[in-house]
Amino acid sequence: MSRVLVTGGAGFIGSQVCAALVAEGHQVLAFDALHPAAHRSPRVAPVPGAALRIGDVRDATAVRAALRSIDVVVHQAAMVGMGVDLADLPEYTGCNDLGTAVLLAEMARAGVARLLLASSMVVYGEGAYTCAGHGTVRPEPRAAADLAAGRFEPTCPGCQRPLVPGLVDEDARLEPRSVYAATKLSQEHLSAAWARQCGGAVVALRYHNVYGPGMPRDTPYSGVAAIFRSALAAGRPPQVFEDGGQRRDFVHVLDVARANVAALDATGVPGFWAYNIASGAPTTIGELAAALATAFGGPVPVVTGEFRAGDVRHIVASPRRAVAELGFRAGVDLASGLAEFADAPLRP
Predict the structure, then answer these.
(1) Hey, which residues are catalytic here?
(2) First-last CA distance in the chain
(3) CA Rg value for the chain
(4) Residue 203 contacts by C-beta under 8 Å, 6 or more apart in sequence?
(5) Nearest to 15 by CA among 52, 40, 41
(6) Closest to 99 measured CA to CA, from 70, 68, 72, 63
(7) Which pLDDT score, from 0 to 100, does residue 116 have?
């Protein structure tokens, strides 16, 4: 049994992580600032069996107090999603990067040398691609003019031929293409530097598109599944950007919680280790919208052709390393997960 501090422990993913850790017999303290991007209401019900302390990871005094008698930290606290616009940049870097730096400094002070980091697939940028003529290639960021003209698929930088998307593994080059993605990669770099300097152990779980009960509703800081679900609940058709052909991997929040439990023991090995946490079953955004609308009972999604700067076309990762080294394999298939999600409550 470990004494675990879960930052962001009152949030969508963090609360499920807390519940899973409690079920395994760990002593859990949830630490959460109740940031308005994730919590519209300041009232939150504690996870049964876990203590809850309100505090901000940017507050060194509060973090220092929370770390007393802790064996391992599970760092879930972060601003997520694409946000509204670049006016969000200071808050993203403050919450995600400064908050992580304060946490790591206080962990070093307290002698807590084990960290489980909630990272994200966004650190990769675009996924893996091959060209018939040039083999494995890395496409350039898509031009706004191409997107406006409906040319959504990236092309080979050498010959402009169409590319075939594949699976990205943990050793792929990291090339974040949004503010949020840049802050998640910074979290990884900060924690890796911390591990080298203090002999600590970091396991970074690169979550793919997490969905499930308790997602925040009607907010630009939530995932696409919650945005679609919120629209359906309001009687509006889901608005599908581009042509709906973007490939993603959707993984249920209960599987993500299980992955954290599986990874907890791996934090005993010094160094920095990263794992994709994904279902291994790619789905297009259009397919997700259609399946969710069907499960909800309509209305039918609308493909808008709109696009967002910083979005990537395809990002699907291999889950093999997590299976082999953590013994983690996702267990909730998308069809049954969406059938449940269609009726599940969202976070107000």
Answers:
(1) 180
(2) 34
(3) 20
(4) 115, 116, 117, 263, 266, 267, 273, 274, 275
(5) 52
(6) 63
(7) 98
- Least Cα distance to 48 among 82, 9, 86, 13 occurs for 9
Distance CA 88, CA 12 (A): 21
- 10 Å CB burial of residue 42 (0-12, 13-18, 19+) is exposed
Q: Give the tokens for residue 197.
A: 């300097």
Each residue's pLDDT tens digit, 68-88:
999 999 999 998 877 768 888
> Is the omega angle on the peptide bond into residue 345 within 30 degrees of 0, that is, cis?
no
Residue with tokens 């060194």: 60
**pLDDT tier at 347 (50, 70, 90 boundaries)?**
confident
What does the pLDDT look like over 264-295, one tens digit per residue? 988 889 999 999 999 988 999 999 999 999 99
Query: Tokens representing 267?
Result: 């934090």
Strands (E) located in 91-248: 114-120, 128-131, 135-137, 164-166, 201-207, 209-211, 239-240, 247-248
- Structure confidence at residue 10 (pLDDT): 93
Buried b (16+ CB within 10 A) or exposed e, 130-141: ebeeeeebebee
Q: In what order do the strands lie in the sheet with 164-166?
A: 135-137, 128-131, 164-166
pLDDT (tens digit per residue) in 206-229: 999 999 998 887 777 678 999 999
Distance CA(346)–CA(179), nearest Å, equals 26
